[in-house]
């Protein structure tokens, strides 16, 4: 594997000294980029784009070619595991993901428990290997997966949900069934991330998009606990020089301390969390990633620069901060605004190190 020419992200995730604050952007390879839209049109659909390693590599590299970012993140989707388990994933234009065969009873749960998703997910590892080769050490590649709880929400609801009625009913009526589903997903997700690491990714991130819809006790049991099992498995597999692990639970301000005790290396923060308070609470144990409100990128340049400075001020002096948005970049953002963000972080952040 090529030696990293830019390892500032890895050093920051490990809370080692850095000369400036590293920056990458959630969903940085996406619809706001005209080159991405062109490649997706050529692919003929989102899933085709994800499942064709050459195309997934191409769009992963697009933001790296355009901006001075400190990491690439593999282009894929969090629902690759449910798709590989045979739930019939497809995307309706303007409506998001739909699973044709949602999980509704224990028979469904046991059926997916007998599946071998990694056989169907080899295309992801192929994309990792190809992307690592094409990056040639310029920046690290981040691999990722959805959290077991987040995957389960889609698998039970069958699609995106506003009230999560079906899976919350399962949680309270049939907690054993949900627990079994989460056990299966924890094992599958750990194996999936381990395979990405073996293929060459230099950091991994778990996206717990829907942890914030749970009451705190339910969050600890049904969202945090499965992530804890994944972190433990990955750390056991890697020995003394682990690949950094980032956990991101959106909307879980009162769970930050719990996240920091999992053994992960970094905790991602959404924009509703004040970065300085988070550092005072957990920043001596883990690195912190975030957390600019994505909507700031619609603002005038001077406002973007001011908000960047504000985030850097909140974290303060020292390493352990990875600059990012508090959630994924939105599709209508002008790419020139991203350039303003990148330039501002590179201009202002050296003074904090």
Could you describe the 3D structure shown?
By secondary structure, the protein is of the alpha/beta class. The protein has a single domain (about 10-295, about 315-330), classed as Alpha-Beta Barrel (TIM Barrel). Helices cover about 50% and strands about 10% of the residues. The chain has a seven-stranded parallel β-sheet with strand order 1-4-5-6-7-8-9. Helix 9 (about 150-155) packs across helix 11 and helix 14 packs parallel to helix 15. The two termini are about 30 Å apart. The mean pLDDT is about 95.
Short description:
This protein is α/β, with parallel strands linked by helices.
Helix content: 40-55%
Say what the CATH topology is: TIM Barrel
Per CATH, the class reads Alpha Beta
**Which residues form runs of ≥5 with pLDDT under 50?**
none
List the helices and strands in order.
HHHHEHEEHHHEHHHEHEHEHEHEH
Biggest sheet, in brief? 7 strands, parallel
Please tell me the CATH architecture by its name: Alpha-Beta Barrel
**Total helical elements:** 16
The separation of the N and C termini measures: 29 Å
Number of domains: 1
Strand order of the largest sheet: 1-4-5-6-7-8-9
Q: Structural class, judged by helices and strands? A: alpha/beta
Indicate the proportion of strand residues: 5-15%
Principal-axes geometry comes out as: globular
Computed Rg: 19 Å
Number of strands: 9
Provide the fold topology.
Blueprint: H1 8-13, H2 34-43, H3 46-51, H4 53-66, E1 72-73, H5 80-84, E2 89-92, E3 96-99, H6 106-113, H7 117-120, H8 122-135, E4 141-146, H9 148-157, H10 165-173, H11 175-199, E5 203-208, H12 216-238, E6 245-249, H13 256-260, E7 266-268, H14 275-282, E8 287-292, H15 301-315, E9 321-325, H16 335-348
Parallel strand pairs: 1-4, 4-5, 5-6, 6-7, 7-8, 8-9
Antiparallel strand pairs: 2-3
Helix pairs in contact: 2-4, 4-8, 6-11, 9-11, 10-11, 11-12, 14-15, 15-16
